[in-house]
Amino acid sequence: MDLVLLAVSAIFVNNILLAQYLGNCPFCGVSKKLSTSLGMGAAVIFVATLASVFTWLVYHHVLVPLGLKYMQTLVFILIIASLVQFVEIFLKRFSKALYNALGIYLPLITTNCAVMGIALLNIKHEFGFWEMLVFAVASASGFTLAIILFASIRERLFISSVPDFMKGTAIALVTAGIMSLSFMGFSGMVN
Amino acid sequence: MSRFLSVLIHGFWKDLPPFRLVLGLCPALAVTASANNGLGMGLSVTFVLIFSNLTISLLRNVIPDKVRIASYIVIIATLVVIVEMILQAYFFGLSQQLGIYIPLIVVNCIILGRAEAFASRNPVFLSAVDGLSVGLGFTLSLTLVGSIREILGAGTWFGNSLMGADFQPFAFMIRAPGAFICLGMLLGLMNAFSRWRGENVIQN
């Protein structure tokens, strides 16, 4: 039951994008079309889950026993960067279809703060293994939900008459603010 | 000399992050609930930016082209670990407030962006000046956003009460939606200003 609550809270209440502000660069950059944001979202779920498992294992079974907690940042970014590279090579070799769908988004993910952020939050909240797994999948799904909703709004924005000086990123941020406001409505659901 | 001056000032308007150079939005939204946090985050980024530009420029003829991004990330991550330790040792309160956003400086696109666009093809001194300029520009922007949000949302500025006892804080501004809307409106205003000056506006 606690795991269900954790998942609901990570997707809706503490949405990684709209409440914790992580992953805004792809949010503004990639979310112009629905199809590309679907691809990006799927790639983030895939990589964030794998990265969380690896970083969690390395943190608890290598860094903590050796007393190297302060190396966390350096180790995590190296794990994420090499993982992304590995996933890319693996997909290219074994699943052409998945590679064609996610391939171009993978390099972008290395510098996506949502992935690194989820890995760091797992440690900060002192999650156990299963909690970490649920949190990672749910947070990345929350990111995907937000980016898909946002892309759908942006496709409409593109054909509406926005004042010239607000075009582009400016109106996108204001829209994200209004979405964030509506997501705040979920905050009564979980305490 | 004129090249030096143009590098020194370009971070304050021409490439002012995160408004003109739309990179590094996450910290600009996340830590600007108060002016103090914005300033602290800005200065941390400036420190990393100056030294990453300096190191990368020193090594620009040594690092093979194919592994340059990986090498940049290692250099940047090392500097971020140093910043983390300095903050924990001397500014413990600030480091608690900024939380996970300090390690996240590693994935701040401004730093990798300047490394790739400037430090990898310019001499050492100019690269350090570029880091200083863009870093201070970012600090100014973050302090500005932080000030607006703190004054409207809490009625204080750097923790000092400004508005008197009758002021009803506009709590919306220090929550997440306020961050997005405040940054969006500022970006719009800056676009309007540069249109009025007759500059080319980059649409993104």
Give a written overview of the molecule.
The complex is a heterodimer of chains A (191) and B (204). Chain A has 191 residues and is mainly α. Chain A has nine helices and no strands. Chain A has helices spanning 2-13, 24-29, 34-66, 72-94, 96-102, 106-109, 113-124, 129-159, 169-183. Chain B has one domain. Helix content of chain B is 63%, strand content 2%. In chain B, strands 1-2 form a two-stranded antiparallel sheet. In chain B, strand 1 and strand 2 form a beta hairpin. In chain B, helix 3 packs across helix 4 and helix 3 (35-58) packs antiparallel against helix 7.
The outline of chain A comes out as globular
Q: Provide mean pLDDT of chain A, rounded.
A: 85
Record field, number of beta strands of chain A: 0
Order of secondary-structure elements of chain A: HHHHHHHHH
Give a short overview.
With 191 residues, chain A is mainly α. Chain A has helices spanning 2-13, 24-29, 34-66, 72-94, 96-102, 106-109, 113-124, 129-159, 169-183.
List key phrases describing it.
heterodimer; A: 191 residues; mainly alpha; 9 helices; 75% helix; B: 204 residues; two-stranded antiparallel ribbon; 8 helices; 2 strands; globular
SSE topology sketch:
The complex is a heterodimer of chains A (191) and B (204).
Chain A: H1 2-13, H2 24-29, H3 34-66, H4 72-94, H5 96-102, H6 106-109, H7 113-124, H8 129-159, H9 169-183
Helix pairs in contact in A: 1-8, 3-4, 3-7, 3-8, 4-5, 4-7, 7-8
Chain B: H1 2-9, H2 25-30, H3 35-58, H4 68-90, H5 92-98, H6 109-117, H7 124-154, E1 156-157, E2 160-161, H8 176-196
Antiparallel strand pairs in B: 1-2
